[in-house]
Specification:
about 250 residues; Chitinase A, domain 3; seven-stranded antiparallel beta sheet; about 20% strand
Amino acid sequence: MNFATPRILLMAAISLSLAVGAFAKPKTLKTLDTDMQKFSYAIGMDIGNYLKDQVGDVDMAAFQQAMEDARQGKPLLMTEEQSVEIKMSEGPKRQEAISQAKAAESTAYLATNAKKTGVTTTESGLQYEVITATEGAKPVATDKVTVHYTGTLVNGKEFDSSVKRGQPATFPLGNVIPGWTEGVQLMSVGSKFRFVIPPALGYGERGAGNVIPPNSVLVFEVELLSIEAPEEAPALETIPEGEAPGGVE
């Protein structure tokens, strides 16, 4: 995991501090009435989620002072080299702590979900629930499938949705995370399943960027729209004995 602050979040925070007066004690908002408030709140959500999911606790007083010192060009309390050194030494400890906490949370969630009515757990640990059942052929791992899906974390945070994009996704079934490859093979065209994918069948200990933390359970609602078998390679031309390709003597 890279503990360097994402540049886009840093630049956004600095830009906002310039616009609204950095780190003055804010009033608590009940509603977001202006585009500036909505934009500011959205950036704050991004930074807050990054700190929560990827970094852990920080000393907010030191964090805010560093932002203000850097913004105003004041003398900094540490050099760039010292900044890198502390992030390199502290980062792995935080990564391990976050990973262990998330693993424990995921184990507890899977145990609870497995007891719910209608949930089936496969030998691999994949959990699924049939929302809409249909009959018919099922895809195999070498097929290409077209699906609509919505993916969330166990806290309900949505990280991807073809439904919201209004565009189904098409891909070779063998080229996705193992939980998808196994789960979609249980479906027939027109069916809709809810999959709960353990970390080992998803993105595991590495997570996926700043979107999916390490050791996360993934929850997907998937509707299978179509199955396309792989194209067969054209048969080789049979050449009569004694004849060259193309009939050339």
